Amino acid sequence: MVLRLRVHSLYNRGISFLVSSSLRNLSASSSLFLNSDQTITEPLVKSELEALVLKQYSHGKFYSLVKNAVSLPCVLLTACQNLSLSANSSGELADRVSRRFSIEEMGREIREGRFDIRSCCVEFVSSSEKLLRCDESLVLPNLKLKVLIEAIRMVLEIVYDDRFATFSYGGRVGMGRHTAIRYLKNSVENPRWWFRVSFAREMFEERKVDKLCGFVAEKINDGLLIEMIKKLFEFGILKIELGGCNSGRGFPQECGLCSILINVYFDGLDKEIQDLRLKMKLKNPRVGIGDEESTGNVFFKAVNIYAVRYLDEILVITSGSKMLTMDLKKRIVDILEQRLELRVDRLNTSIHSAVSEKINFLGMYLQAVPPSVLRPPKSEKAVRAMKKYQRQKDVRKSELRNARERNRKTLGLKIFRHVLKKIKQSNGFKFEGEIENEVRDIFQSWGEEVMQDFMGSLEERWKWHWLLTRGDFLSLRHIREKLPQDLIDAYDEFQEQVDKHLAPTQAKKVLEDEERRVEEEEEQRYAERTVEDLTKLCMKVSAPEELVRKAIKLVGFTNNMGRPRPIIHLVTLEDSDIIKWYAGVGRKWLDFFCCCHNYKMVKIIVSYHMRFSCILTLAEKHGSTKREAIRHYTKDLRVSDLEGSEEAHFPSEREVKMMGDKNLSDPKPVDGTLSLLLIRLASDEPLHSCAASFCERSDTIMYRLHLLQNRLLINPLDEEKWVPGMGTIHSALNRKCLPLCSTHISDVYLGKITLQDVDSSSFVDLR
Questions:
Q1: What share of the chain is helix, strand, coil (3-state, %, to 5)?
Q2: Helix (H) or strand (E) holding 680
Q3: C-alpha–C-alpha distance, residues 147 and 98, integer Å
Q4: Residue 318, exposed/middle/buried by CB under 10 A (0-12, 13-18, 19+)?
Q5: Cα 540 to Cα 470: distance, rounded to the nearest angstrom
Q6: What is the predicted pLDDT for the residue at 286?
Q7: % of the chain beyond a pLDDT of 70
Q8: Does the pLDDT of residue 359 top 70, yes or no?
Q9: pLDDT, mean over the chain
């Protein structure tokens, strides 16, 4: 039996929700919905959480979400499950949470408005040098407050996710950077003009927070939720910075609510752009709706508007005129400045030609190019190489065929001699196995194979046809008159069979037709490619080669000449940790740029520069040469674990070569892993539990954080010295210490987890 809850006229757009879940699941959780003080040991699945949230919908709004959803112990336990880094059973997870705080008491405090957010804040004071940016103090939530923030995020996701526009990316499940790039590559046709909206770097102040809360209140009638959001902004836990480069990168200073609240704030703009796109599509209908007309008219170019928004990065593309793009830009900028009260950097928000100029979006370069640039035809050298390879295959095939015939002849003679010898020695004695039939079957199968090969060879058929038809004196009239009629009829029948089976004329005609068909198809493909190049434009996505090379030089992978060099700061780490750090940076770069046209350049940087920088670092640590390090670790950088078995964390050369645009995941950028070093300390501090969320291992080691900008004494705002677009971890965490177990320190080095996944109250300040 299925319970169906249909909510009509949702979001004032005629959207309806259909919530379906099994009666068994809902009956198991119905008591949770009614009695929030009951002890909970099971987190909710997604369908149960959706049913719980949508149950609070009435007359176009959601009511009392904090009281009836966020504060429930089952929802808080689900938030703990999302934050937990280890796959535990629900009972084990509940025990781990209960040893830190009581979920029932926490839910009661939230429901009654007594939850003290200020007491759950951990403040870090920046002690950066004068050359660096003087950041204000950093405020991070402890694990208990993180659970509340995650519970609010889950509820807001159910409320808003289906309401957001289809081109709204970031902070949504399955809607990340790579999804946006794939949309641009696969859906945008004939882009002519585009512009990227740039914001002046500013933080959300009180006025914008009030406006954001007003947008939330349009759909959610819950004063307690609005008050919590305002307190998170007031205490500095929730900060939204527009125009920066720290959003969506896994930095610890980014709150879990930032992404979804940015999407809520820009949702009005998304709806306006969506309406403009629909109006433009209705203004320019496609002429001819039949299949033949729609596929044959390759010269038709519809005027379309495309838009992609990833958090605060907005890209608008048009296939129309520049005047149309200018009007569109004016309307969007007016909405941002007047309705949303945002400061737009008009100098950098300029219109560019999609054909002649590249544009930087989501850390990659975009440009409109003909299809032949993305899928170039084979060069003459490649064609010659392919023909040479085909000739080599034919020669090898002929050699194998001749060897098979020779072996078959030798084996047949041996079998024939053996059978003849047995028959002579038998003196009339009959074999039980009837060897004659077996030999006959073998010879018959061989004969059929030989005939198939013979009939498939035009040269052999031509040769035998010429031998059997030359000197046909029996066709002369004065000769035929002197011969018996039976002989003449037999000869004529034989000639008919020879012409029927061996005449190469029919086979030659088939081969000529096949060659002609191949040539016509090649000419047709060439014509289609030429027409496409003249009438169609595609999106080319490229990795920023100069910025990537500047980044590897800034970190220390290469010297001024662009050659690999060791990183001295890493020699204090264990060998496996050094390799894991290099592997984490390399794999993140490979995953992030896998959708780029110049992916080969990134492969070279990882497979050559980073690999040999790691080898040189290991050689520097042990005072050996590069050759000795390669001999010991191999080029695949294999290292032995505690049990003596070899591990390979760094991608091998073959693995890098086989990588391509087949991965649909959405990895975070490399900025956090690249700019962070964790150095192991020899400390006499008492044992601490692991700082990873809900990890209870006490066999930890203390590590000190070293940030790249503090180590190099560079201000990240200085684009001449720093890499433009590369984010940084807040400098207040520099030289702070963190206890981590062996599993989670390995995950940090490999880039699987970030400092967002640790409990901020676990930081230790050791001098």
A1: 50, 15, 35
A2: strand 676-680
A3: 13
A4: buried
A5: 65
A6: 61
A7: 83
A8: yes
A9: 82
> Which pLDDT band, with edges at 50, 70 and 90, does 534 fall under?
confident
Q: In Å, how far are 23, 306, 395, 516, 747 from 386, measured between CA atoms?
A: 63, 41, 14, 20, 45
- Is 27's pLDDT higher than 50? no
- Output the pLDDT for position 233: 92
- The residues facing 702 across adjacent strands are 739
Residue 135: predicted pLDDT: 52
How far are the Cα atoms of 612, 627, 650 from residue 653, in angstroms, in the given order?
12, 18, 9
pLDDT value, residue 394 = 85
Helix, strand or coil, per DSSP, at residue 507: helix
> 671, 708 in Cβ contact below 8 A?
no
More confident residue, 672 or 104: 104
Quick count: other Cβ atoms within 10 Å of Cβ 68? 20
Distance of CA 743 to the CA centre of its chain: 25
Report how far apart, in Å, the C-alpha atoms of 622 and of each of 572, 578, 580, 632, 639 are: 11, 13, 17, 11, 14
pLDDT of 32 above 50: no
Is residue 586 within 8 Å of residue 537, measured between CB atoms? Answer: no
Distance CA 565, CA 362 (A): 30
- DSSP strand E in 512-564: where? 538-542
Task: Locate 472 and state its tokens.
Answer: 């046909």
DSSP for 322-385, please give it.
HHHHHHHHHHHHHIIIIIS---B-TTTS-EEETTT--EEETTEEEEEE-HHHHSPPPPHHHHHH
| Rounded CA separation 632/623 (Å) | 13
* CATH of segment(s) 166-204+239-286+299-370: 3.30.70.270
Q: What angle do CA 166, 169, 173 make, to 5 degrees?
A: 95
Return the closest-CA partner of residue 565 out of 554, 580, 573: 554
Average pLDDT in the 579-594 region?
A: 90
Secondary structure letter of residue 651 according to DSSP:
P
What is the CB-side half-sphere exposure of residue 625 using CA atoms within 13 A? 3
Strands (E), 387-513: none
Over residues 310-335, the pLDDT tens digits come to 999 999 999 888 999 999 999 999 99
Tell me the torsion sign for CA atoms 331, 335, 337, 342: negative
The gap from C-alpha 130 to its chain's centroid, in whole angstroms, comes to 40
Is pLDDT at 253 greater than 70 in this prediction?
yes
Any idea how long the chain is?
767
Domain boundaries, the chain: 2-163, 166-204+239-286+299-370, 378-425+434-442, 542-762
* Spatial CA neighbour of 759 closest among 71, 96, 95: 96
Kind plus residue range of the DSSP H or E element containing 448: helix 435-456
Q: Give the C-alpha separation, 662 to 683, whole Å.
A: 45
The single residue listed with the structure tokens 């964390």 is 649
Confidence of residue 541 (pLDDT cuts 50, 70, 90): very high
Find, among 634, 591, 131, the residue nearest to 363 by Cα. Answer: 591
User: Token pair 């008009």 is at which residue?
Assistant: 346
* Residue of higher predicted confidence among 713 and 195: 195
Q: Tell me the backbone φ, ψ of residue 427, rounded to 5 degrees.
A: 55, 45
**pTM assigned to the model:** 0.79
The tokens of 684 are what? 């006499």
Contact call for residues 375 and 536 (beta carbons, < 8 A): no
Q: What percentage of residues in the chain have a pLDDT greater than 90?
A: 27
Cα gap 332→314, rounded to integer Å: 10
Judged against a pLDDT cut of 60, whether residue 34 lies above it is answered with no
Measured CA to CA, the distance from residue 532 to residue 534 in angstroms comes to 5
